[in-house]
Structures are given as C-alpha cells and as structure tokens.
Design goal:
It contains no helices and 4 strands. By secondary structure, it is mainly β. This is Histone-lysine N-methyltransferase SMYD3.
Amino acid sequence: MAPRLERFVSPGKGNGLRATARIKPGELVYSAEPLACCVSNKVSREVCHHCFTRWMFIGSTAAFSIAAKLTPSS
C-alpha cells in the first residue's frame, strides 16, 4: 500500500510533497510519467531531437538508423 502523501507550500521555496505515514527503505513513494525529455549534449549531433532516432552519417549526408532508436533514458 502506498504511503499517504501531502502537498504543502513552503514560503520562499515553493511546493513540496511529504509523507504522512512511515516509509520503509526502498519503498516507492511516488511515480509519474515525465513531463518533458531532451537529448543529452553528448549525443545531440547524433540524435533527432524530435523522435530520438540516431543519425548515421554516410559521407556528407545523414540517414536515419531506424534500428538504433534511443529511449529518453539513453
């Protein structure tokens, strides 16, 4: 069972979330889909920023590598 959570506002710091019950070590407290994601600077010249597909450079032209599609966590 997930612990009960409470939203609070801290003056000068903004919104916060705190538990109203004990949390065991390793227990999942909160999970949500990412609001946004972006391509890391390390691979920014190799990956499409729209679909996260890796580019393959052949000579001076670029082609998509469909098999090398990246996930947001890559």
